[in-house]
Specification:
By secondary structure, the protein is α+β, with helices and mostly antiparallel strands. Helices cover about 45% and strands about 15% of the residues. A hairpin with a 2-residue loop joins strand 2 and strand 3. The radius of gyration is 30 Å and the shape is elongated.
Length: about 120
């Protein structure tokens, strides 16, 4: 595989430069180089049109979620930590909704529309 341009650096990180044709003809080898950690600049003529860089390692969803929650706690330190002993508001909301449905059903069975007083 030939390299179209010399290695260049603007921040002491060397990267290969290749033409679009070279990348297309040697795609598998280019992907192997990228997987090994190299960054490749793709040029059409003398114009840079793309950079192929290694993917960042992905965190498992649980780890990403934990990091996001920690970031919220770091940004808003006044938020109290989760306490499983504190009653969940969701249970109260669902109990109220169930009571409203039950009342509406009873009123409907009495011949009244649920929205009537």
């Amino acid at each position: 595989m030939t390299i179209a341009f010399e290695n260049q650096s603007d921040n002491l990180i060397f990267m290969k430069e290749m033409s679009v044709t070279e990348v297309a003809r040697n795609f598998s080898a280019v992907m192997d180089q990228v997987a090994a950690g190299e960054e490749i600049v793709v040029r059409r003529g003398k114009v840079e049109i793309a950079r192929i860089v290694p993917a960042e390692p992905r965190k498992p969803n649980g780890a990403a979620l934990a990091a996001a929650i920690q970031a919220v706690y770091d940004r808003f330190p006044d938020i109290p930590p989760y306490d499983p002993n504190v009653p969940d508001v969701w249970d109260e909301v669902m109990a109220m909704k169930t009571a409203q449905r039950k009342l509406a059903q009873e009123r409907f069975e009495q011949g009244k529309m649920p929205w009537e007083s």
